[in-house]
Design goal:
By secondary structure, the chain is α+β, with helices and mostly antiparallel strands. Helices cover 44% and strands 11% of the residues. The N and C termini lie far apart (40 Å).
Length: 109
């Protein structure tokens, strides 16, 4: 199915965009809040653009802007990225990840 990219204003194939985005970022294309081609979506994630990608915390259930929460967690953890902290564990918002980080005495999972 073809759609128009909200960022680059060109037509793109959604299935192709999904494959590009998920392969490059390891994130779920369906969690993008804008209709984006794979290239633009990857660039916006790389540029840490706010308001583009959202996740749901598997502990407290809130939906959160990944880039905002990554910035919050990095400040607290002295540079550790939230996505890296998740490892193979649950997806956590910054508040839940900070709580988990404190409970593990600042040790990386």
């Amino acid at each position: 199915m073809k759609k128009r990219c909200e960022w680059g204003n060109h037509l793109f194939d959604v299935d192709e965009a999904r494959e590009i985005f998920e392969d490059e970022t390891q994130l779920c294309y369906d969690n993008l809040k804008k209709c984006l081609c794979g290239k633009c979506a990857c660039e916006l994630i790389s540029d840490e653009e706010i308001g583009i990608y959202f996740e749901t915390c598997e502990k407290c259930g809130i939906e959160f802007d990944l880039m905002e929460h990554e910035a919050d967690f990095q400040k607290y953890s002295d540079g550790l990225r939230l996505r890296d902290y998740w490892g193979q564990g649950p997806i956590l918002c910054s508040d839940c990840a900070i709580e988990d980080f404190e409970n593990n005495e600042g040790k990386y999972k």
